[in-house]
Every structure is written in structure tokens, then in C-alpha cells.
Amino acid sequence: MDLVETQSPGRDAALLPRPFLKWFTEKGWQPRVHQLELLSRAAGGENMLLIAPTGAGKTLAGFLPSLTDLTRRGKIPPGSGFKGVHTLYISPLKALAVDIERNLMKPVSEMGLAVTIENRTGDTPQAKRQRQKLSPPDILLTTPEQVALLLANKEAERFFKDLKYVVLDELHSLVTSKRGHLLSLGLARIRRHAPDMRTIGLSATVADPMDLQKWLVPQGEYPDPPAGLVHVTGGAAPDIAILKTEERIPWSGHVSTYAIPEVYEIIKRHKTTLIFVNTRFQAELLFQALWTVNEDSLPIALHHGSLDAGQRRKVEAAMADNRLRAVVATSTLDLGMDWGDVDLVVHIGAPKGASRLAQRIGRANHRMDEPSKAILVPANRFEVMECQAALDANYIGAQDTPPVGEGALDVLAQHVLGMACAEPFDPLELYDEIISASPYAALSWEMFERTVDFVATGGYALRAYERYAKIRKTEEGRWRVSNPAIAQQYRMNLGTIVEASELNVRLVRRNAKGTIGRGGLSLGKVEEYFLEQLVQGDTFLFAGKVLRFEGIRENECHVSNAFSLDPRIPAYAGGKFPLSTYLADQVRGMLADPDRWHVLPDQVRDWLNIQRDRSMLPKQDELLIETFPRGQRFFLIAYCFEGRLAHQTLGMLLTRRLERAGARPLGFVATDYSLAVWGLNDMGGMIASGVLSLPDLFDEDMLGDDLEAWLDESYLLKRTFRNCAVISGLIERRHPGKEKTGRQVTVSTDLIYDVLRTHEPDHILLEATRRDAASGLLDIGRLGDMLARIKGHITHRDLDRVSPLAVPIMLEIGKETVPGEAHDAVLEEAAEELIAEALG
Amino acid sequence: MRSAFLEDVDLLNRLALARNSSNGPAAGTEEIIVHGVTGVCDPLGGLYLPEHGVLVVSDLHLEKGAAFARRGMMLPPYDTIATLNILSAVIARYDPKVVVSLGDNFHDRKGSAFLPDNLRTMIKDLARGRDWIWINGNHDPDGTTDLPGTSTDELLYGGLIFRHEPSLISGRGEIAGHLHPSATVRRRDKYVRRACFACDGTRLLMPAFGVLAGGLDLNHKAMHGLFERETLVAHLLGRDRIYSVRYGNLLG
User: Fold this and answer.
1) Domain membership flag for residue B161
2) Quick one: which of A627, A596, A653 has its CA closest to A779?
3) Is B82 domain-assigned?
4) Which residues of A fall within a CB distance of 8 Å from B185?
5) Which residue of A105, A218, A250, A373 could cross-link A436, Cys pair, CB 3.0 to 4.6 Å?
6) Which of B1, B70, B244 sits opposite A834 (nearest CB)?
7) Distance from CA of B251 to the nearest CA of A (A)
8) Range of the domain at B219
9) Domains of chain A
10) Which part of the chain is the Helicase ATP-binding domain (chain A) (predicted)?
């Protein structure tokens, strides 16, 4: 996009107060067109959305309307009456709020503006937070949770009444999560305190900007016009390549260790390289592998969400000072932080989404008119195709960000209690306010009433808890909290991020006698369930070290240095993104079209050619099913390309059906690309002879009864239920006076789930759980779309041996077990040993 | 992803087992000997002493949901009825002369006083025609209100001593609860955790009977020093039977 040359200086002067013009001149800069457009339209009273690539001066653009308004207002003389906060800046990351304060203070102090800027996060000391309520800064940099806390306060109106602007950073990332739902409800309430408040959303490129434009303004019966859009396109096209390797590209796996020496050479040739991976597990393994070849002892660091915060801050500071040559990082570094002079991004493994790739590549080189440079390192052969597809997409600017979802009910319950803590609410008024938030625009009155009932007494059909109600209706028909302790409980448990129960990992020393000392370095946190499976002496990889498990003491996990080369590796559950629908479609397209194979490496092309000879390659809208015998088993492979989550759900449902059809299935494994089921009977023969009908097997009706029956036993729902129970306030994370019990949840949610499902299967929290699971862990929506798409397009190949395309998933078998099955067989085996011992 | 979610799967098993249970001697039980007295471990979570006609259950934690509701956490109000359903199934199996409830009978001190009438009636019906002993626990040290039976801190009966918290001084012939023992079995890369009876021949620790009671692993430091580990056997509550595994053999 052109810079400001085309603008008349007169317009600048009218928009920008003198200190700004002077500052730009001194710097030899000029304000950019989009910065001025945003400023003039926001100052004119419009809500605004700015979509711009990294390096386009997005942050300054977002703050210009506030800064110019505050400059014209001038300094407030001491002794004036209370003045509420002028501008809220809300970011999804605490670190981002801190980073922005640093970046914003620089121009503000250089211009000599009389503007106060402070941040407020969970880390802000209580005294400072209290002072901020009494004497707010002009600009408050904060998080969605802090906004909810401020709103649930009796002083909320006073605090917010003078608010002019809310700047929402990284909006594309905020809106798709439960934090975004909570924030949308908060904005609806803020508008009541400050009807003239304007929103300014800052976002990376998204698939559907209109979703965000609506999100920024009140919805409901009489929606406001959508926020105005300033869309900055262009910037220099990124320079992206797929690693050309001399090595053999593996058939399966996710770690790309084959490419380590080549990646190391690339690091040596650049100033600072940012190496992105998809999971903490990959980060750990890759970091260790890089250090084993690091003959020059280059400063290479590790950064992921489980590491101790102190360690992470150190890495971030070292990066900002350009003291590092490379950082291996997960999504914790995804968002718009500005770290030093990164001149190369290396992406290990496939990016799983085109938009995610664009974001990450934007980290290299923060000036938008120079090209960012990136190298993709696929971990296996399917990923070669996926990387190629993402690369094509990045050039043509395709976007596959997830849509803004429907507002979650557990978040709503939390908000309703918060509003009762602020002041007694009238249900009709609150309902109107809530449906003005776009994620809740479709909320029915009936569902709202059930939510209020849930908050009050748990919402049970058996009205057992009326006398213990948390909120009660006053004679005027308003709901108020029963006692102050409820408000305190709310404040302690607020938020939508439910962490898996984690233990702090501390490195201790073993002395000569083998006893273990106290104290030592804190390395970070690891999920409790993983540690519970370890026995003393087991080794695992964490924080870049191979550690020996010593035991759990007082809610800490003690480890010592292991000096072992063959660790068990943290099998973290989270952090794997499923393949995006868009990329999946591209990979299917590439597979079906040999004309597009010329860009692929020889070994991948050969692989596809052999597949075409031995079996076939499915057309873009076709589902290929292969069957073949191997060992004592018969295999069925479905090449669906719908991502791991949807395949897992399909696997669960398909094995139920195969069981009924007499195929005697034994297990399945799912990858992003395909699903493999194996069993004792010849499924290929059964299909060929008509005993087993593929159209019936893959019929959409599996999402009916089979799904219900499976969900009843699924551990996945229990995990989802736990989150809903915590967010909705059914279960407390912390209870007054018991902050340090260590265990985050005081009663087993699995047991509660079982009891509730047995006695009241229609309960609102179970409904919330099913909705969450359908869109999240189970990806039912996507599975449904696929089943509809492949109807009448299923092709079966009965082979006498494994096909080339099946090799990657066959190699996954045995690496990953499917949890949640009832494992009485294991108990039986152990009991048999006792019997044998007794008889022997 | 390893099997991380193996906890508590025995609850649905027990609920189903109780629903399908019939009167009279049960299948899937395991006979043990504590301090010379024969006991039958039932997969529903009760211990029956046939020589004395005594049924022992422990840590019912009745009205746990209501106890939490009193503190502002509205847990489902169905835990008491679910626990009592299982209890009536196990009573129907053995038709015991005496029922001993080993403490933490109610989750808090107010539990028995605020018990809804229909549930109170249910307990009265279960107690009809037999003796009922409520051992006091740390959650409910004051005994029960308006329920049949007698309350006591300890009971000596048939050469055994029944108390809530295991004694740190001597465990000879002791039947205790309090700790909610559970055990983890590992074979290859599969882990299964279930509630269990823990017995080394001298002392027996009862599994928690209440549906919301949860469990504590036998390896937890609270269990240290209670058992002779060489003779300790965990009798795990399986889907429809007891599985007995030697302590040293749990992890394969």
C-alpha cells in the first residue's frame, strides 16, 4: 500500500496534534495512510476493524485515536474530581500487555505527551490494582479476565463511565476462544456504563472479516451497523521454500530429526532463526537434537508454555537483545510480539493451517515492505504435500481461520454470577444486554433462564438446594448474591482457562549415598497424570534435559539429572492442531492431479507413482478405502484427510459398526490424513462378497445412536465436562482460605459426571459439555460434512498387501494407544499371575 | 497419548452391577483372612464376615453434594440416593445380622440432620430387622441424628476391632477406612486404577463406598507404615468381580 505522499499535509495537520507532527518529522517518518484513515473514522465516531500484516504499524494505528484525543484534552490538574479510564487495551496474552507498554511508552515520552499508561494483569500486585481502581490511568493495558473482574465490582460504573476507546489486539485469536466469549459479554456491559465507547479491533488477515466487524458492535434485535473496515494488503511477498534435503524423508513421525544437520547449517548462515514447532514434545526433542550437533556452541534456546515463567522471560529478554542465534518455540511465541531481529523462520512439521503459517512467517523481519524469509521442514511424506499446499496458499493469500463460534454456556453462567456480584440485576435487562454480544445473539430466553437457575441452585430437577441458593430474587424481581462470600468465591475462580492438573518440576541433586537433597531449580510444570505413571528411576525429556524421576513430594515433582540418552518423553496430550479443512482439501487436490507433482521432491513423487500402480489415487471428492491382510490381521484404511480429531471420532464409531457386522475389529489408529482399523476377519472379503456394505458403514446415521452410545462411555466427554464444571462455577478451583491445597479441583469431576449422567442426563451442564465436545475434541461437525461429501463416492481396493500410501499410518500403529477403554483385561492378567504363583 | 483417564471408571460399573444384582450369594467375590477371621470382599465395595453375619461398609460420605452446596458449590443432589442404591443391593445379597458403617458416614456434621425425608426412610427400611452400628469419622464425629442404630468411636467384635482411622500403634485385627485406598496396575504400557480392599493378613483397609468419595493410591505417603508390604494384597473392584494383585506385583 502507498504511504502518505498522496495525502495533503493539511489533512495530517487537522488530524494530528502538533507533538505528533513534530515527532514524525524528527524521525523522518510519515504517518501511513491506514493509520490516518483509522484515526479520522474512529474520531468521527465509527467502531473500526484494522486488518493488516505484521510490520504495518498496527499498534500505533490502534492507539492514535486515544493518544490524539488525550493530547487535546491535556493534563488533568491535580485536585480535579475522579476521572475514569479513557482507553482500555485488551490482549490475549499477559506478556503482550507488558510488551505493548514498553513499545507505547517510547513514542509517548518522546513526544512528551501528558498521558498515563499502566498495565494490569494477574501478576499486578494487589496494592497497585486497588490504587488503579481509585485513580485509573488514562490508558489501561489489560486482559479479558481483568475486565471481567473490574466489571463484577460495585464501582464498575464509576470506573468505566468516561471510557472512550477499547482497543482489542490480536482480535482474530481472541474471538474463537471462550476468553473471547467472556470478553464479548464484558463489552456488552461496558457499553451500558459508557454508551459512547468505540471499539477498535486489530487483526491479522482472517477468512471472514465481517464476523469480526459484527463482533465489535452491539447485535440483538436492532444491531448497529458493522464496524468500519480498513484492510491493509500487500507488503512484500514472503520468500518461502520447502527444505531441499539430501536425506531420506521419513514415512511417518512428526519430529524431522532427519533434517537436523541441515537445519543447523541454516542457523549458522543467519543472524537469528526462529524455529517453530507444533507441540511441546517436538520442541523438547528438536532442541536436544540441535544441541547434539551444536559444535560451535551457538546460543540456541527453548521456549514453550510449560517452562517456568522466569526461564521464559530470560529467553525473551535475550532475544530482544539479539543475544540468541536460534529459539525453538511453540505457539507461545505466535502472537504479535516484537522480538529482536529475526531474519529467518524455520517451520518444523507441517503448519496445519495456512493462516497459522502466515502469522508465524510474519515473525521474521518486522518491516512490511521487506520480504520475510521462511523455510518449511516437513516431517514426513504427507507433510511434504501439506507444506506445498500451505505454500501455495500463502502466495495466493488463502485464509482458513476458524469461524467465530456460538457463545459457550459455561462462560455465560460465570458472567451471570459476575453481574449479580456487581449489582442486583433485572433478568430482562440482562438478557437484552447479553444478546447484544454477537456470540450470544441467538441465545433463547429459555436457555438464559435455565442458566440463571443453574447459577442460583445448580439447576437440578430435584429442587434440593433452594435454601443454599447463591443468588436470590429480591421483591423487586432483581437477582442479587446471597452473601458477600459468594462474590469473593467468584473473584477467586474467574477465568476460562482451565489448566490440566499440573505439578511443578524441581531439579534436585542426588548425593553419593543416593539420597536426595532439598531445593533446586524450578524447571516448569508437567501434567500430573503423566507423572503419576512414572516410577522412581524412569527418565523423561523436559526443559531441554533428560531427567530422572525421583518422586512426588508435597505437590512438587522431584527430578535429578539422568545422563541418559534414551528418555521416556513427556506424552503431552495438548498442543496438536488438527489439519485445517482448507489444507486438507488442497492435499486431496494435489494427490488427484499428477500435473501438480512436479514441485514435489523425487522421492515423494516416486511414492505416489508406485501407489498409482499398486492401488490407486483417489479423486479430490472421492474416499479411497483399501483393505489388505498383514501378519495375522486384516486392515482397512480410509483416506479421509479430515484431521486427527475427526478421524478419531470416526474410528470409535466405525469400530462399533464393524463389531456389529462381525468383522471382529481389534483397534484403530488415526492420523491427520487417514484412519486404519484392524481386525480378525477379512474385511476386504466381506466387502467384496457384499456381507459388508461400505455405503452403510459410512452412512451419516452413525452420528445418531452410535454417537450417543459411544459418548456415554467416552473419556473425552469427561475431560470436556471438567472444563465446563470449572468455568461455570459448579466446581471451584480455589476456595477462600484454601488457596494452597495444591490440587486445583477439590472433588473428582469424573465422579460427578457419572452421577449426573445417571440421574439427570438433560442437565444444562451436560448440554454445554456435548456442545463443546461436538465442536472441539470430537470435531463432529467436520465428520458430518465429510460423510455427506463422500456419499456415493466411496471406492474400495482390495489388495493382497500393504499399499505405499498406507505405510505412514501402519508405522503409527503401536505408537499411540487409544485410552479410555475399560481395561479389566489388564486386571485379569495381573490377577492370573497371582493365581499362577499360588498354584506354582 | 497414554491412558490418562483411567480413574473412577469403577463407579459406573458399580452402579450397573448394583442395578443388575440379585438377592443371595454373589459371584465375583474374593475370600480373605484377616487376623484369623474369614471375610468376603464384594465387588460392590462391602466386606461380609460370614462367621458373624456382619456386613462392613466404609466412607459412605452421604450428602456430600449437599455439604458442598452449603459452601456454594452446587454438586448434583443425587449422590446419596446412588450410594444407598448400591448399599441396598449389597445388603440384599447377604442379608446381614449387623451392618457396620466405618465412619465418614455423612460428609459433614449437618448431613444426617438435614437428610431429606425420603432418604431417611430408605435407611430406616434398610436397617429394619438388623443391628446397625455407625462408627464416628472425622467428617461426622458427633454421631447421627434421627436414624436407627447406635453410634460409637470404636467397636470390638468377633476378635476384630472396627474403627475409622487406622491406628498408627497397632493394626492387629483392625478393619479401618478413612484413606479410600485405590491401586494402580500396570501391564506393558496400560495403566488401570481402581478402588481396592488392602489387606496384609493382619489389618484390612476398606475401599470408600460413597459414589463421590474418590480414591488415594496405595503408594501415597499416608499409607506408609500401615502394612507389611511382603504380604499386602490389593483386592481391586473390577467390572463384575474382585481382582487380587500382590502389592509388589502391581506395576508388573
Assistant:
1) yes
2) A653
3) yes
4) 826-827, 830
5) A218
6) B244
7) 9
8) 10-22+31-246
9) 4-231 (3.40.50.300), 239-396 (3.40.50.300), 502-561 (no CATH), 615-840 (no CATH)
10) 39-224
Residues 6+ apart with CB under 8 A from A8: none
**How many domains is chain B partitioned into structurally?**
1
Question: What is the grid cell recorded at A796?
Answer: 474400495
What are the CA-CA distances from residue A763 to residues A321, A720, A758, B76, B105 (Å)? 54, 15, 11, 10, 28
Task: Say if residue B4's pLDDT is above 50.
Answer: no
Contact with chain B for residue A837, Cβ under 8 A: yes
Owner of C-alpha cell 474520531: A43
* Region for B220 from its dihedrals, namely left if φ exceeds 0, alpha if ψ lies in -120 to 50, beta otherwise: beta
Asked if B1 lies within 8 A of A573 by C-beta distance, the reply is yes
Whether B110 maps to a domain, the answer reads yes
- The answer for residues whose C-beta is within 8 angstroms of residue A333's C-beta and 6 or more apart is A274, A276, A303, A327, A339, A363
Scanning every residue of chain B, which has its alpha carbon at the shortest distance from the alpha carbon of A830?
Answer: B245
Separation between Cα atoms, residue A545 and residue B189, nearest integer Å:
23
Query: Which chain B residues touch A751 with a CB distance below 8 Å?
Result: 8, 11, 211-214
For A632-663, what is each residue's pLDDT tens digit?
Answer: 889 999 999 888 878 888 888 888 888 888 88
Burial level of A66, CB count in 10 A (0-12/13-18/19+)?
buried
Q: Which residues of chain A have pLDDT under 50?
A: 1-9, 334, 336, 571-575, 739-745, 816-822, 840
Q: Please give the Cα distance from B83 to A707 (Å, whole number).
A: 29
User: Best of A455, A755, A813, A815 to disrupt the B interface by mutation (most B CBs within 10 Å)?
Assistant: A755
Q: Is B210 part of a structural domain of the chain?
A: yes
pTM here is: 0.81
Looking at chain A, which residue has its C-alpha nearest residue B212? A751
Q: Is A268 exposed, middle or buried (0-12, 13-18, 19+ CB in 10 A)?
A: middle
Phi, psi (deg, nearest 5) at residue A504: -70, 140
**Residue B37's beta-bridge partner residues?**
B34
Which residue's C-alpha cell is 536460534?
A326
